[in-house]
Structure formats: structure tokens, C-alpha cells
């Protein structure tokens, strides 16, 4: 099995939201790897970060992503940092990978209202988000086969555009 598409991009880009709505529109299953990590470990992501640290979270994430890519022909939404793994980037080759692009300002607005993302917690969120993008932007770009801007576009509009891009595939 192979997913119809895999969604990547930074926190707040809409991977979970667009993933759910795109899967509905195409009548496919959604696998959100963050939800899958929480389901299989029985713990929340902040708990894993706090008690075991980021490196352990990344190990769990790597194996959950590997399994998700094998186990579904639906839509897979990754966590924002999944592409930091060399092995995950290798596994993504040959897949339809959609990079949901977002500006720093809009990414901060969309993630600002909650503290569910341990990587953005503590310190100045803007500096953290900029730093994160500096490191990751080249990795998102390299892994993507489709890119779509999401600033100022409603989820419905983003999904509409993705449905038509995927039809050409
Ligand atoms: N295109 C969009 N326009 C406006 N708000 C959005 C859009 N996509 C997502 N959001 C909102 O941004 C927040 C983060 O979205 P989420 O799907 O959790 O992002 P991600 O999984 O990429 O971190 C949510 O509150 C969601 O409703
Ligand atoms: O960017 C990151 O490193 C992370 C993003 C989160 O997912 P979202 O991108 O869906 O917020 C989640 O996987 C974890 O908190 C780490
Ligand atoms: Mg998400």
C-alpha cells in the first residue's frame, strides 16, 4: 500500500486540519502520526518530550512514520519535525509529498493560542519559530513534490486546490 499523499510543513501549517479535510473530500483514511504516537504509547507528546526528551520522541516518530507509510493508501499527516530524520526523508522518496507553506507570522498566529507544542514553548516563540524554519525550510523543500501556500487561504480553499493537483497525478 502507498498513501495517496503525505503532508509536511512546520507547526501551524495545517497538516492535521488539511489532512483530515482532504481525506474526507477524497473519502480516504487519515493517519496523523502525532495522534498515532499518542495512541501507541498511551502518552501525550508534551509528556514524551518532558520525560524522555526530544531524541527519544524522534525515535518513536521515525518508526511510527515508517509504519504509517506502509499501512495506508489514504492521507498521512506528519509532525512538523519528522523530516529532520535522514531515514524518514529517504522513505519519503517516491511518495507524493505536499509541503504546506506558511509565513513565520501566520505560523505563530496559528500556534500561539495553545501550549501543545513543546518545541515552541519557553523563550521567545518568534525567535524559536524563525530558527526552526532556518534549519528545516531546505528539508521541506527537498522532500516535497507539491508545494502550496496556505497564508490567507481558508482550509476549504487549500483542500480544493490540493484535490485538483492530485487529480493530475
Ligand atoms: N488554511 C488555514 N487557515 C486558517 N487557519 C488554519 C488553516 N489551516 C489550519 N488552521 C488552523 O491553525 C491551527 C493549527 O493547525 P494544525 O492543522 O494543527 O497544524 P499542524 O498540524 O500543521 O501543526 C488550527 O487551529 C487550525 O484550525
Ligand atoms: O515541529 C515539531 O518538531 C513538532 C511538531 C508537532 O506536530 P505539528 O507540526 O503537527 O504541530 C509535534 O510532532 C511535536 O510537538 C514536534
Ligand atoms: Mg499536526
UniProtKB/TrEMBL annotation:
PROSITE patterns documented for this protein: SHIKIMATE_KINASE
According to the lineage, what is the superkingdom? Bacteria
Give me the comment on cofactor binding: Binds 1 Mg(2+) ion per subunit.
Q: Which UniProt keywords apply?
A: Amino-acid biosynthesis, Aromatic amino acid biosynthesis, ATP-binding, Cytoplasm, Kinase, Magnesium, Metal-binding, Nucleotide-binding, Transferase
Main localization, broad class = cytoplasm
Q: What is its EC number?
A: 2.7.1.71
Gene3D superfamilies given in the database record: P-loop containing nucleotide triphosphate hydrolases
Q: Which reaction does it catalyse?
A: shikimate + ATP = 3-phosphoshikimate + ADP + H(+)
Amino-acid biosynthesis is among the record's keywords: yes
Q: Name one GO molecular function term.
A: shikimate kinase activity
Location in or out of the cell: Cytoplasm
The pathway is:
Metabolic intermediate biosynthesis; chorismate biosynthesis; chorismate from D-erythrose 4-phosphate and phosphoenolpyruvate: step 5/7
Q: Which cofactor does it need?
A: Mg(2+)
Record-listed substrate binding positions: 34, 58, 80, 136
> Where does this protein hold ATP?
12-17, 117, 153
Detail which positions bind Mg(2+): 16
Similarity comment: family membership? Belongs to the shikimate kinase family.
Function of the molecule = Catalyzes the specific phosphorylation of the 3-hydroxyl group of shikimic acid using ATP as a cosubstrate.
Quaternary structure (record): Monomer.
Q: Which HAMAP family match?
A: Shikimate_kinase (MF_00109)
Q: Under what name is this protein listed?
A: Shikimate kinase
Q: Which organism is it from?
A: Rhodococcus baikonurensis
